[in-house]
Hints:
The protein has 4 helices and 43 strands.
Amino acid sequence: MxxxxxxxxxxxxxxxxxxxxxxxxxxxxxxxxxxQPYVVRSDDGAWLCCVTTGPGHEGAEGQHVITLRxxxxxxxxxxxxxxxxxxxxxxxxxxxxxxxSGRVFIFYNHNTDNVREILSHDGRQTIRRVDSLxxxxxxxxxxxxxxxxxxxxxxxVRPFRCDxxxxxxxxxxxxxxxxxxxxxxxxxxxxxxxxxxxxxxFFEQSEGVLLASDNLLSEPDPARARWETLPDGETGLRTPxxxxxxxxxxxxxxxxxxxxxxxxxxxxxxPVESYSRDRxxxxxxxxxxxxxxxxxxxxxxxxxxxxRCTNGKYLYWFHNHGGRVQREAPGNADGGAYDDRNPVxxxxxLEIETPTGREIAWSEPEIILYDDDPYVRISYPDLIEExxxxxxxxxxKDIARVHEIPAALIEEMWAALAEALGLAxxxxxxxxxxxxxxxxxxxxxxxxxRAALPALPWFRVRDGNAADYRGxxxxxxxxxxxRVSLADLAAGxxxxxxxxxxxxxxxxxxxxxxxxELTLNDGQTENRWxxxxxxxxxxxxxxxANLDGGPRIISSIIDGRLCDGGDTRQFGWGRFNPYLRxxxxxxxxxIAPAVAQVWLYARPLRTAEAVRRSREGA
Length: 618
């Protein structure tokens, strides 16, 4: 180890805020509780947003639905309009559908019979939360959401086996909805999530259905609309064979050939998906959702939504952790699976042909939104497109916001996926900027054993403008990229090391089972994180180790795959200490002979960048 002759000075704090941070979104006005901020673009150009709100917490008495309009893409909003004016009976969990005529329908739960308490499925517990029962209803607006019809219309929902077997014998049914309605072949479809049992985790058993109407969009009197409950038979969309009892929050979109795609949450540590090729009457056997290469995606018990964009491509919101470790964790079914909805990851999708018909292939994910506090839950999003720009809404159940997502990032994700699928020619990528170090310096040159190392970014610095000189985050990041070939996978082999005699700096080495371990040290704080054990002896691997100073996430992307923990860990990515200042150590970087190339960047690489670069020289 070597020592620097003088401390590395802290750089100035970046002046541009991280747009992924929740605080930089535009707030949607609500009361206290704030849930499901969903938006449709009305025919007069305004954004019409519905929100479930109330003076208390989720499920409290007085919870109700409001709508607001914005004509400046969420920078300001009209005064809220209550959908059920003067009605203190709970009305909740609204979704909207705009008809081709411009009429807007709003669907929601309504405690029409003013039920004040219910029983758990075993009859032992009295439950006074009554926001997910009663009648499924709708109103409509012919003035772009400025007002809603005086008439409230019931949607008849066909009882399934889970309804008849509930604690009330089907006389009272439990349900709610978060899924975006859609139109297919002139028919209106509205998802609904049936609840068969209340108990552990509140909703103890659930399954998904579609409510379909063949004349809602054409009938002048919406009260005369005809409805059927799909799929055919006695059960809705559930988990795959052997899966858990929870199958809920179904999100649907329609493929270019009319196939309906549906994805939903479970207790199993994975999202579930299914396809219908006959307009919702029957569905393919449910299966756990996978990336394009066949690896199962991981997701807790949280909303995970898929949207079809106007260009015919897809986006998917999820949280990228879970799996067997979460499924088997104590307390998972009692509510633990609801945790860890921060950060939010986005995956891009493209249609592909398969032996059974068209399906969607999904890309490696990118962090899209985060909050500093890992306990904050971010969920119930919606996607808005306007003039080639992309916006997401979200809520933490307290504040709802709108965020613009850079179109260039989304386009890059689609491009990387297309190349991986062989749907587009791979384009050579220039070394990302800002690049701090690239070795060897010239193509064909020998790799040095040591190299001079410039100053690396600081993650936390002193705030000289504060009276008490407190610290503040810079939001800076670091990426370590290399190509490496290991003759064997013995643990403890050092590949890259800049640590000084006090241990300050970073070290990338091998860990047991074919994993890489990254050690970070600033002299006061040390962090370690290992990749998934995916290295193989004698094979050249492309590795990116990312330190993302915004959400303080450390992640590994190996051979174009972002490590997610596989079957051995709930999380493949981790969090480094928020008080870690930097990883500057010695003035030299020591490099093992197994390393063929190395690059250092003063920011994390986007996953799509790493995926594309993994194919260069492969």
